[in-house]
Amino acid sequence: MEGSMSAQKIFELAGRCPDIEAYTINLQTLEKKCPLDQLSPCSSLPPKESTPIYPLGRLDDLPHEILSSILHQVDLQTLTDFRSLNRQARIIVNSLSQYKDVVVHAPHALRAILSTGMAPSFTPSQLSDALRSQECCLCGSFGGFLFLLDCRRCCGLCLAEAPELLPIQRSEAKTRYGLRTESLWNIPIFKGIPGSYSSGNRPRSLAESLRRLPISIVSKERLRLAGIKLHGSEDAMEAFVAKAQEWQPGPMIGRARAYRRARTSTYCNYEPWRFVAAIRFPTFDISTGKSEWGVSCRACKSEAKDGDKQRGWMRMYTESGYLAHFGLCKRSQEDWARLRRSLLPSKADQNPDQVS
After folding, report:
1. Which of 123, 191, 261, 332 has its CA 20 to 30 A from that of 302?
2. pTM score over 0.90
3. Comparison of pLDDT for 244 and 44, the residue scoring more
4. Sheet harboring 168-169: ordered strands across?
């Protein structure tokens, strides 16, 4: 390839992956139903605060560095409650570096965590660490989604297919892992946000059921750890799970199978429950101060066929990652060659005097 590809030209060959995005939490709906007062009405930056009137009591005796260190380790729900105490508390919370990064570059993630009841389970440090990372927690490729049950970054392919990211209904957890009621007390419950979770290709009855159905799901990984603690070892827990799977499937699995029979989408023939707890998530580079949402390869998607097990079109890349992919994707190179030829001036434009 002659020269280098500019950032503008990258988006001529790459783009977003709307097929997967449409199945996750809708960002526009979330922004409308869960506004954040951390953001100015006409800006993506936190508004300027006036001088506070009321103090924080004995907390004012702590050095600012110590108070900030403590607040970075407080869960997001407690931090939100503390922030609503008075103007002084709001100024302190807004000044936290990791909290500010999330508010500026990924406010929708904060909205989703607060709206689904997961805020008591995660700290601003955990969410900031996920924001500053790039790799999928399972496969190591670029992850363009946040799995809200564990606050982990994941890619579209793992989100759609990995068994570790398949949520489980709370009522089914006892049967599948042999957990007692008290074992579930410390496991956070995710309350689903109503939505269609489809690209418009599903039957209307299915979309309506997902939009209206209230669900409470829990993390499979957290249940696994609780099961190991209860049964004494992973082998004992897996033996119990294997035996439990021989029983009649729970209500959530039964509904998911009914949904699978009704699906008509060409690309996303997966359990809809997988995407209820996921949201699009950018990555933030602290050295450059820039955030990236990731792009997918249009050439790979144009070549995708039904039954394609590799699902290469579902992969997403940063700009630098897409350049590396471009060197291996022959279809993208062919598209780039055609694009360059279309941008080159014609001979008539170069030598107008020679045109008869």
Report:
1. 261
2. no
3. 244
4. 168-169, 216-218, 190-191
